[in-house]
Amino acid sequence: MLLEKDRYKVQGVDLIDLASEYGTPLYVYDADKIHQQFDRLKNAFSGVRLKVKYATKSLTNLSILKLLKHYGSELDCVSIQEVRLGLKAGFEPNQILYTPNCVSFDEIKEAVEIGVMINLDNISLLEQFGHEYHGSVPVCIRLNPHIMAGGNKKISTGHADSKFGISIYQLAHVLRVVKTYDLNVVGLHMHTGSDILDSEVFLRAADILFDTAKNFENLLFIDFGSGFKVAYKEGDITTDIEDLGQKLSASFQDFCQEYGRELEMWFEPGKFLVSESGLFLVKTNVVKTTPATVFAGVDSGMNHLIRPMMYDAYHEIVNLSNPSGTKRVYTIVGYICETDTFGLDRKLGEVKEGDILAFKNAGAYAFSMASNYNSRLRPAEILIYEGEAHLIRKREVFEDLTRNQVEIDI
Asked: Does 337 qualify as catalytic in the annotation?
């Protein structure tokens, strides 16, 4: 998002004009930023057979999936519905990793029938899988290394209390199940969670995977998950992808030499690829002054961007209508009948009713976590690709709220 003569533009497309044409609230994604992040990740790892599996859950729009496929990405899916979205976007089954959690075995069987790579994180399901398929269907195992690599507990998944992964301390049990059912284990997986700050912590978790991998003879890949931290405000500490890439590539090459053959290295970035590409545009409905606070109330809420309320996430906010105006302090709130505060005590160019505000880092877990709470409609989505704005999701209408409801005679 570049400021050009008091107007913010993305690839030359004026954001105020977009808000006027398509209305607000409005999600806007910059394809160039996604491409830049994808290339940065690919270039950070050298001398290894790298596969990038985009974490579909972060932003599931079909056009975004097709865009990432065009750039060379494959997919990581956590539900059978995401798998089907991936197929619809043109991905082949062998390009999709399916990593469910707490699902029924029927869903896993459906994924097997489709032909995607199955990644299991539960000993019970691993036993059911072995009973059903023995070694006829390859499988990946998700392990929990019991390492905290991120800062926010709500999005950290590699610690001892996490519901994700099979504890590394249960490895002996896993090996018994694998031997009993002659399972064809072709991959090992870990994911420590989001917002990895310290590459060294991540590398320690990788060492645990390397040691574990020595127990499996038929591995084709090791999946290191993702969780790379992006910047949410100026001066933020982020994951040093280049440093991690250099160190982990070297460690992986050493492991492959010891293992006896070259394996593939997989990653599953979601937020890293799409977060910074996204802007969420809203209109200021009211400016309300109280004895303690000046509120800027906008035409959206936690139904469209729940991360600040759910994770205490920080999203930088800009007044697109008055970017160079006198800075004043506002608390930006939504129109939902809850305390849906987007940002406390933010300095913005003086805000007036009707002004268009933009929330940054709205590419990941914004629309994908949106809801119809308060019977509000979900916004449209726009992709700016090669200098042109493309509508990639229509704004919902009232009929969408009642489409699947069945009224009874009372």
From this structure: yes
Catalytic-labelled residue, pool 77, 102, 140, 337? 337
Closest alpha carbon to 190 in 200, 205, 177, 203: 205
Per-residue tokens: 165: 């992964």
C-alpha dihedral, 381 to 384 to 389 to 393, nearest 10°: -20
CA distances from 165 to 189, 223, 248, 364 (A): 9, 13, 22, 23
Q: Tokens 């290339």 map to which residue?
A: 39
Angle between helices 123-133 and 105-114 (to 10 degrees): 50
Per-residue pLDDT tens for 254-301?
A: 999 999 999 999 999 999 999 999 999 999 999 999 999 999 999 999
Q: Using a cut of 0.90, tell me whether the model's pTM lies above it.
A: yes
Domains annotated on the chain, with CATH: 2-29+275-402 (2.40.37.10), 99-269 (3.20.20.10)
Average pLDDT, the chain: 93
Q: Are 270 and 277 in contact (CB under 8 A)?
A: no
